[in-house]
Every structure is written in structure tokens, then in C-alpha cells.
Design a protein that fits this description.
- With 135 residues, the chain is α+β, with helices and mostly antiparallel strands.
- The protein has a single domain, classed as Beta Barrel (Elongation Factor Tu (Ef-tu), domain 3), CATH 2.40.30.
- It is 20% helix and 34% strand.
- The chain has two helices and six strands.
- The protein has a six-stranded antiparallel beta barrel.
- The protein binds flavin mononucleotide.
- The site of flavin mononucleotide has 24 residues, from helix 1, strand 4, strand 5 and helix 2.
Length: 135
């Protein structure tokens, strides 16, 4: 891993709205102090679980999920690319290494799903390059 992070955020995983799995991109929602959060947006990140030093590649959303009705607090949501672990109650350390785009409000959920798939592919390529995969 050669990229130094834009920000490092730690937080405990709490229940979200339970929508991510339906969309095809399950996310772990972190509870952390709002001042700890960087600008809203979509980020590539390395994530560590509790005190395990292994970094998992992830796509991360920071914001209020404006596509969906109802006010909610700003939150950081972590979609791990290559592993499904039950993360409830676990402490995550999230190294945000690149910001891809701002958070958008989509008129159609299918457009959000399509954009998220593209985000995950971009994050994966970026993190693979940073880790020297394939070189
Ligand atoms: C890579 C990625 C990109 C996302 N981009 C947006 C976005 O642009 N706009 C938005 O409203 N939500 C975005 N989200 C958040 C999803 O709306 C959210 O993960 C989903 O509603 C599930 O939320 P839940 O875990 O609280 O159920 C994104 C999530 C991920 C993982």
C-alpha cells in the first residue's frame, strides 16, 4: 500500500436502513462524531477490522443518501469489495485514499445502482494500482 490517506476515520458499525443488500452493495454504517467526517462524497478506501492489520479494499459513501426520502444524519458507509463479514459492533478503521465524486441525488434507484457499480470498479482499479497488483 503506497498511497497515504486523505483522512483516517474510526467508528463502530451500527444498523443502517437495511437497503444496501437490496441494491446489491451491502454497506457497514459507522457511528462516529460528525466533525470526524470529511466532505460528502464517494471514496476509495482501505479498511481494517478491530485490531486485525489486514487491509480490505472498499468503496465508501459519506453523506445523507439524498436519493432516498427522509432526513438522516451524515454517515459513513463502507462497502467491502472482496469479503462478506458480519461487521455489526466491530470497530472499523477507514483510510480514505481518493475522492471519486460528490454525492448525488438520483431520480431513479436504477441510476444509483449503475453509478455505484461504476464507482466500485473505479475504486477497485485505483486500489489495485496503489497496492501494485499486476505489476
Ligand atoms: C460506492 C457507493 C456510492 C454511493 N453513492 C450514492 C449517491 O451518489 N447518492 C446516494 O443517495 N447514495 C449513495 N450511496 C449510498 C446508498 O444510498 C446507501 O449505501 C444505501 O441506501 C444503503 O444504505 P443503508 O446501509 O443505510 O441501508 C452510495 C453507496 C456506495 C457504497
Amino acid at each position: 500500500m503506497i498511497t497515504s490517506p486523505l483522512a483516517v476515520i474510526t467508528g463502530v458499525v451500527v444498523p443502517g436502513d437495511g437497503r444496501g443488500r437490496v441494491l446489491g452493495f451491502p454497506t457497514a454504517n459507522l457511528e462516529c462524531e460528525p466533525p470526524a467526517l470529511p466532505d460528502d462524497g464517494i471514496y476509495a478506501a482501505w479498511v481494517r477490522v478491530d485490531d486485525d492489520p489486514h487491509p480490505w479494499a472498499a468503496s465508501v459513501s459519506v453523506g445523507t443518501n439524498p436519493t432516498f426520502a427522509g432526513a438522516r444524519e451524515r454517515r459513513i458507509e463502507v462497502h467491502l469489495h472482496d469479503v462478506e463479514i458480519d461487521l455489526y459492533g466491530r470497530m472499523l478503521t477507514v483510510d480514505l485514499v481518493a475522492r471519486l465524486r460528490p454525492t448525488l441525488r438520483f431520480d431513479a434507484v436504477d441510476d444509483l445502482i449503475e453509478q455505484t457499480a461504476d464507482d466500485v470498479a473505479r475504486c477497485r482499479a485505483l486500489l489495485d494500482a496503489a497496492a501494485g497488483v499486476g505489476s
